[in-house]
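Hey Z.,

So I finally got round to the geranylgeranyl diphosphate thing we talked about over coffee. Here's the setup:
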Amino acid sequence: MSPTVTDRSHRERIESALDQRLSIADFDPTTLGQAMRYAVLGHGKRMRPRLVYAIGTMLDVAIERLDAPACAVELIHAYSLIHDDLPAMDDDDLRRGQPTVHIAYGEATAILAGDALQALAFELLASDPSIGDDPGTRARLMATLAHACGPNGMVGGQALDMASEGQSIDLQQLKRIHDRKTGKLLRACVLLAAAYRPDLPAEHYAALDAFGTRIGLAFQIRDDILDVTASTKQLGKTQGADQAHAKATYPALLGLDAAEAYAEQVSQEALDTLQPFGTAAAPLRALAQLMVQRNH
Ligand code: GRG
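And the result:
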């Protein structure tokens, strides 16, 4: 499955939107700014911003208004990767095909770069002019992202994940970890775009919410599968890291074939939720399939 023309244009758009917004990182001390740009620019599949753009355009939101939330979610993602790779967490030295930020810039700068990217993400939602004049929209954007990254979202999921290392956990517990650690931020991409459309019928909003949750789960199952089946070169990060950290994963709990079937089932459920949007959802469907059928 190859990206649609629209999705390709979204990929180009996010690269330039990120570059522009990270020019703020050109200040002194230069190492901090350099580390922020190193972590964010030039690499990564940009799945989260692509989702923001795909949902937003499906909902007829002007593309320029989506730049700030698309950047904000990628900055949060980049911060989480920097911190996840630190010696105190997964202790990885390769990410996105290059040395991790703490290897390239030292541990203290890596911590600060992650912190700064997180703050910058919220600054964008609070004050980027492209969002428009409506304070209600800004408040919804900020609340949505804050919930997704906080104790009931990504950071809470990371804490649960670390606590479960080396423990025997069941499928329900694994889903709970991943729903927070990975799922909430992917769901937020959907809800950030929907934040511009408070006039959406409740059933459309509920359908998008369900889509966000299902696609987040499907994405994570695929990530676990790739950790077993893909190479370090393909992934741009150390292959087999889950097993090395004695992490529970879908292939470990279900077996590889059943994990594949589960990814397929959840991805189909995600696509089914888009039924109320009819043909307008075609680019989003294509992106969702790409997210689950990816090989890196
Ligand atoms: C340390 C606060 C904190 C959080 C860490 C998200 C996370 C929580 C850690 C990242 C490690 C990891 C493997 C998480 C699962 C989510 C995931 C699949 C990340 C990789 O996302 P991709 O594939 O990466 O979108 P690229 O590099 O393409 O952006």
